[in-house]
Design a protein that fits this description.
With 342 residues, this protein is an alpha/beta fold. The chain has 12 helices and 12 strands.
């Protein structure tokens, strides 16, 4: 494995997450190569006259870097940061495998529980985990909007605190100075799964994240969704960790409803300050007209619940409604959320 001074990084997926993190590393002198499936985006990043532009209240700058389509890239890297949509994880890992060194690793900069999928392709010893909650949007080829700062947590999937984790932490602090390492990355990932389920619910409508969560008539529905996700995590032997207003304890079975409302209010407060008003899920449905990550996020929780004999009617209905919108059988509407089980 290359030492701490190695500054070569391959970022596979240059959208909102990969683009925002990669641009910050290029700005700070890292030798970053981007891979993406959108030809116009690839062309913009490597064009000296355009480059990759980061806009928004956090930072405003542009960088130029080598960028390739998957079939064009050549070479081998010790560090590969994977930032594709969760449902593309396996295919992306098989494509990047020839470019990963024997003692290198793939870091999952994704939403969902993608680390087991990555490990099944590249091997668990070459897999590292991360949890991110900053707000960013891919606006157009060569342009990513960074709407706010949020939690960035890094960890080995087996919980060890290792020299390579320490070195990785130093790298990611160039993007998020408050990034941390943890021996329990799975607890954060399951926490994000619960929070993500709430974002899928708000994506059924037209309001943004903060405005959607703030609807008092939906508090019981949000409580039901969060409770199912937390119950499944606990059955898996994991105590989910909270972040940026989301308190898993407030969604435990038997938690006072007032505690749930306080967590919802805290999430509203956090998201109301972001220039990213809507979730990436909503943008997939409303703007980019493409499939979401629902099967690899909400579907993962439903499947885990099935293994433990835990019924998840609210998560199941939520996934069904997302699919109906994806298939053009249901319009985006704030009224959709009134159909969620309570």
């Amino acid at each position: 494995m290359a030492g701490d001074g190695d500054r070569r990084i391959l970022i596979w997926g240059a959208g909102a997450i990969g683009g925002a993190i990669g641009a910050a590393l290029v700005r700070d002198g890292f030798d970053v190569t981007f891979v993406d499936i959108v030809p116009e985006h690839v062309a913009a990043i490597r064009d000296p006259a355009r480059g990759l532009r980061i806009s928004g209240p956090v930072a405003e700058y542009s960088v130029t870097a080598p960028a390739f389509l998957p079939e064009e890239v050549q070479g081998v890297w010790d560090r590969v940061f994977l930032a594709v949509k969760a449902h593309h994880t396996e295919a992306a890992c098989r494509a990047l495998l020839p470019h990963l060194s024997a003692d290198g690793y793939v870091l999952s900069l994704q939403n969902g529980l993608c680390e087991p999928i990555i490990a099944s392709v590249v091997g668990p010893e070459r897999t590292m985990g991360a949890f991110v909650n900053f707000g960013a949007d891919w606006i157009e080829p060569g342009h990513v909007m960074l709407g706010n700062r949020g939690a960035v947590v890094l960890g080995e999937i087996d919980g060890r605190m290792t020299p390579r984790l320490e070195a990785l932490h130093a790298v990611l602090q160039h993007f998020e100075p408050d990034a941390i390492t943890t021996p329990e990355i799975n607890a954060f990932l399951w926490g994000k799964l619960g929070y993500g389920a709430l974002l899928f619910a708000t994506a059924l409508g037209e309001k943004g994240i903060a405005d959607g969560l703030a609807r008092p008539e939906l508090a019981a529905a949000y409580r039901r969704i969060g409770e199912e996700a937390v119950s499944v995590a606990l059955a898996e032997g994991i105590k989910p960790r909270g972040f940026n207003g989301f308190d898993p304890e407030a969604f435990r079975p038997g938690a006072p409803m007032e505690q749930t409302r306080q967590s919802i209010d805290a999430m509203v407060a956090f998201n109301s300050t972001s220039a990213k008003t809507h979730s990436g899920i909503w943008r997939d449905l409303a703007v980019r007209k493409r499939r979401t990550e629902v099967d690899v996020q909400v579907g993962t929780a439903i499947e885990a619940g099935r293994r433990h004999g835990i019924a998840c009617p609210a998560l199941t209905r939520l996934a069904e409604m997302i699919h109906e919108i994806e298939d053009g059988r249901r319009p985006l509407s704030d009224d959709n959320l009134l159909e969620l089980p309570r």
